[in-house]
Amino acid sequence: MSDEIPQITGPGRFAIDVAGESYYTESFAAICGPRCEDGVDLEVRARLILQDDNPHDKQAVRVEIQGHPVGHLPREVARDFRRAVRYGQLSIYETFECAAIIRGGWDRGNGDAGHYGVRLDLPQDDD
Asked: Is 0.70 surpassed by the pTM of this model?
């Protein structure tokens, strides 16, 4: 496997939602700091890691930001991504990087708090 990390450039739409963010509240606290009234709208780099050893899905793709896990690609997106890797002759790589946006995480008191969400800038079929 190569130590190089391919950079994937999308069309700037940030149209791919990451799945399972609600399981990673500690990761978001480490990345974004304490919750605030307005929350965050933060552009970052995300790593997409092929996770062949995932016990729930052998085709999973984990998403990490600043070394912290924040979720996975949705099942169908993960399969499409893996096909693109295979047919794009990138199968020597296990890790990729792309632009991402973290939004949410507000806390306005009285139970008015929002979850964090991550959207990725990946090419799609119509790009």
From this structure: yes
Question: Which amino acid is it at 57?
Answer: D
- Surface-to-core class of residue 92, CB atoms within 10 Å of its CB (0-12 exposed, 13-18 middle, 19+ buried): exposed
**pLDDT tens per residue across span 30-43:** 999 999 999 999 99
Give DSSP secondary structure letters for 77-122: HHHHHHHHHHHTT-TT-SEEEEEEEEEE-BB-STT-B--EEEEE--
Tokens of 62: 């984990």
- Model confidence at 90: pLDDT above 90: no
Contact 28, 21 (CB under 8 A): yes
Q: How many angstroms separate the CA atoms of 113 and 127, rounded?
A: 35
pLDDT, mean over the chain: 93
Give residue-wise pLDDT tens across range 40-66: 999 999 999 999 999 999 999 999 999
CA atoms within 13 A on the CB side of 114: 15
Structure tokens at 114: 């929002």
